[in-house]
Specification:
Structural class: mainly alpha
Strand content: under 5%
Keywords: Membrane, Transmembrane, Transmembrane helix
Largest sheet: none
Distance between the termini: 59 Å
Length: 53
Amino acid sequence: MEHNPPSAWLTEAASVAVQQGTGNLLRIVLVVMVLGCALTAWFLLRGYRRKDD
C-alpha cells in the first residue's frame, strides 16, 4: 500500500471534478447540505416534544 499525502488526493479530486464538470459535485453538496439541515433540525427540535412535568 503506497502512501499518498492528503494534497495528492485533493488535487486528484479537483482534476476529476474539472473533467466531469460541476453538475455531480453540486448535486452531492446539495444532498449533503439538505441532509445536514434535516438532522440538525431534528436534533435541535427533539427536546421540545418532551414534557417537563
